[in-house]
Write a structure and sequence with these properties.
Elements: H1 2-18, E1 33-44, E2 60-71, E3 76-89, E4 93-106, E5 113-126, E6 137-149, E7 156-167, E8 178-191
Antiparallel strand pairs: 1-2, 1-8, 2-3, 3-4, 4-5, 5-6, 6-7, 7-8
Length: 192
């Protein structure tokens, strides 16, 4: 009996969180600004696009991304993101760069959890010595999907899965490129 009432109570809470909050209680709008930090882990994989199937070296890294942005509409956020990658496989190395043009499109703006899609591009320097890249200055491209968890007040949590691509965009050598499946968790502040 207790487990049934616990289940019903949990189910009701879950389905209420799916519905919009009270009318007029948008969590962000076109006047909102954002700042945040995201960190995570990534590993090379061959299914990534572009360069499908060309990443063969096992590469693992820890990622750190400070971010700053603004909402240009009530659902579209443009932001800049710094990139710091610390590799531990196949060797100790690092990458640093800037994804100067990035964006998130949120499906809603009035719920306590909001799915989004994201994409960005920029420049990156790397000390990684692998066959997939043959320059130290490269380009980065990422795209993915995630979830923004919005409490009534305070910072928001951002969970994201993305494909992170590094290559020289055909400017030198064979240009195989590195694709990495990356899981990020972050904290983000929405400022009005």
């Amino acid at each position: 009996m207790v487990s049934r009432s616990l289940f019903l109570s949990f189910s009701l809470s879950f389905f209420l969180s799916l519905s919009p909050v009270w009318a007029g209680d948008e969590r962000f709008d076109s006047k909102s600004r954002t700042q945040g930090l995201a960190w995570g882990w990534g590993h090379s994989w061959s299914p990534g696009f572009p360069g499908y199937g060309k990443t063969g070296t096992g590469i693992a890294f820890f990622a750190f991304h400070p971010q700053m942005g603004w909402f240009v509409t009530d659902r579209l956020e443009l932001y800049g993101e710094a990139t710091l990658l610390l590799y531990d496989e196949p060797e100790a190395a690092k990458s640093a760069g800037l994804a100067g043009l990035s964006g998130r499109y949120h499906l809603w703006n009035d719920r306590s959890w909001i799915p989004f899609v994201s994409a960005g591009s920029g420049l990156i320097w790397t000390s990684l010595d692998v066959v997939e890249i043959d320059r130290i200055f490269n380009f980065q491209l990422f795209f993915g999907a995630g979830l923004r968890l919005l409490p009534a007040k305070g910072p928001t949590w951002v969970l994201e899965f993305r494909n992170h691509h590094i290559s020289n965009a055909g400017t030198a050598g064979e240009n195989l490129g590195i694709n990495a499946a990356t899981v990020l968790i972050g904290v983000n502040w929405i400022l009005r």
